[in-house]
What does this fold into?
Amino acid sequence: MLMSKPQVLFIAGTHGNEINASWLINQWIKKPEIINVNDFEVVKVIGNPEALHNCKRYLDCDLNRSFREELLNDDQLALYEIERARELLLNFGPKGLNACQIAIDLHSTTSSMGTSIVVYGRRPADLAIASLLQSRIGFPIYLHEGDDNQKGFLVESWPCGLVIEIGPVPQGLLNAKVINQTKLALNIFLEELGKLNTKKAFFPDKIRVHRHVKSIDYPRTVDGEIEAFVHPSRQGSDWHPIENGAPLFLKSDGSVIRFEGSETFVPVFINEAAYMEKNIAMSFTKRETWEFSKDWESAIYSILSL
It folds into this structure.
């Protein structure tokens, strides 16, 4: 028995200088046949068109941190990205004019993240879809939680949603490999969604997640100036564990700042260009294996039947 067709929001250009997914989405709008949607109802949107036009991450504030209730409900805030967040929810939110149940936010990064999945918190439906993508092609999962400084992410405003993150690629540069990786990820997601819709999805017994623990800044002087850069042996080593004594940063005089800690962490988003303004040199995660929960399966099927 077929379920009702879910409506899925594919959004690119949430950050205007991440142009590869935006280019692909615009091509998909012009030529729907380039990606097979398996008869699903899909909505394709550029998240931050003005920032994309200017090839800037944002105009007034980070759109992907603008979906906090206190910001959305503050009538005094007339910042472009806040207004754009309200507009996206009005049109495509779960109670919007053209309501979508699932949101897939397409991003790129200057870090060596490969093709990876970012989920926010432990929403069961998000974990269900992430598990399908991981079991299909091995995408690593970054579980972002417990960071009070980083909130208001776009996909959290939909019943189910996740980020597909691809890199490395410089900001503002079209790259054939990144475009092809994005297209592949979209095709795999839509294929797995098709299996869900016919109840033929195969969920794994376990998933591997990289649970966010903390973010670290670059070493700084008392005046706040960066005094060391990411060590060459650490640069490009996203998803590779770091242990006590490993090189972490390098100063201009050649002296090495080493990682000190009794725990083994797995760094991600190493030296991400966009995070310089957030005082983040990299984030540390713990690699964990979780048993698949039937609650996750129930949650995604419940959303698909809305």
Q: What stands out?
A: The CA atoms of residues 69 and 267 lie 30 Å apart. The mean pLDDT is 95. The chain has two domains: 7-209+290-304, 214-285.
